[in-house]
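User: Here's a structure from my thesis project, written as structure tokens. My advisor, Dr. K., wants to see whether a designed sequence matches the one we expressed. Can you design one independently, without my sequence as a hint?
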């Protein structure tokens, strides 16, 4: 038996929607899974593409397979079925703000669901993903696709405690030989942690990802943020986000409206010290200097820049690259489509 799991890249925040909105983009993490009767007890992993020199091939250390085992264990299946081999092909660069970890987590949830024949609903799969990746923007967009807004429900006291267990209990360090049944009970996700809605997306809008050739971990980029914000900054973002969620679905898109609605005061200003050239790139590429540009922001936790545009892709990317080069940062760039979510075939 064999099947293929495919999960798209995502860009979170889109300016003002910090931890709220995400967009699925046409770069993919793909798992080719084969199950052979009488095969080895421990899954055999192979890997090509982005992250090939970093991703562990030990299934008890690799993020995707550890998430799959978590899903299986929560559903009464204490170890991987035998005879599994998984070939990973990855187009999503690690630690660049394009949702590589969210894609790996969703791939793990889908893998656990398929291996255990669990028939989990989309909502339940989101619960599992949120036990691992605790902000919903990337995982929701990777799961359902498109331009998506999500929130975490206010849970009662016991569900809050269940959803806040340390990650080390959800994805424990497995012992060297974990191929035997792994006995401890895993923390079950509460039901209905995350809720989402898909917004319209105007088909003519493409996403240019300008990807610096260095990694910035989400943990480090989140550590740069303050604990609290002024009312002025919160209102600044809420006003823009309210407009943006509708403006990106209108045809033809209104560049003046979108450019202003993609500004942010909650995360980008604090992350500029981690990304040389960030303010200059954001300020130098505008609808008046670049025909076709609609808006520009940091993609997720960075360092990638996301420019939304209807034309003029090369000039936007080349000029942003030139600004980064002045700051000693080399980049790759790609023009991407907003795509559908994950699939299992
Ligand atoms: N396909 C994968 N297989 C195994 N581990 C992965 C995979 N993709 C990502 N990871 C893990 O996730 C880490 C990157 O996660 P991180 O949250 O820092 O950045 P990101 O998800 O790429 O960016 P962002 O969350 O801002 O969009 C990698 O260093 C690696 O440990
Ligand atoms: N909303 C998250 C996305 C990164 O995963 C952040 O900006 O930290």
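Assistant: Designed independently from the structure alone:
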């Amino acid at each position: 038996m064999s099947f293929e799991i495919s999960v798209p890249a995502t860009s979170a925040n889109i300016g003002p929607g910090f931890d709220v909105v995400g967009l699925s983009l046409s770069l993919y993490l793909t798992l080719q899974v084969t199950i052979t009767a009488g095969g080895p007890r421990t899954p055999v992993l192979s890997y090509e593409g982005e992250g090939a020199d970093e991703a562990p091939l030990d299934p008890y250390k690799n993020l995707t397979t550890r998430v799959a085992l978590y899903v299986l264990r929560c559903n009464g299946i204490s170890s991987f079925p035998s005879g599994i081999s998984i070939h990973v092909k990855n187009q999503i660069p690690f630690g660049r703000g394009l949702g590589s970890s969210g894609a790996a987590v969703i791939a793990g949830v889908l893998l656990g669901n398929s291996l255990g024949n669990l028939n989990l609903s989309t909502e339940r799969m989101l619960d599992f993903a949120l036990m691992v990746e605790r902000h919903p923007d990337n995982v929701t967009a990777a799961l359902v696709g498109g331009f998506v807004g999500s929130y975490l429900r206010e849970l009662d006291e016991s569900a809050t405690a269940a959803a806040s267990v340390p990650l080390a209990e959800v994805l424990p360090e497995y012992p060297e030989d974990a191929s035997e049944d792994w006995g401890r009970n895993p923390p079950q996700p509460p039901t209905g942690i995350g809720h989402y809605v898909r917004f319209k997306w105007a088909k003519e809008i493409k996403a240019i990802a300008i990807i610096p050739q260095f990694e910035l971990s989400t943990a480090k980029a989140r550590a740069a943020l303050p604990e609290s914000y002024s009312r002025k900054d919160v209102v600044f973002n809420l006003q823009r986000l309210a407009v943006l969620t509708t403006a990106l679905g209108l045809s033809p898109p209104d560049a003046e409206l979108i450019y202003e609605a993609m500004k942010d005061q909650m995360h980008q200003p604090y992350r500029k010290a981690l990304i040389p050239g960030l303010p200059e790139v954001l300020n130098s590429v505008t609808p008046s200097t670049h025909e076709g540009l609609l808006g520009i922001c940091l993609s997720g936790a960075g360092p990638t820049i996301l420019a939304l545009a209807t034309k003029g892709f090369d000039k936007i990317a080349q000029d942003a690259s030139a600004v980064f080069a002045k700051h000693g940062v080399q980049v790759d760039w790609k023009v991407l489509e907003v795509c559908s979510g994950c699939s299992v075939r």
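When you compare it with your expressed construct, this may help: The two ends are 12 Å apart (CA to CA).
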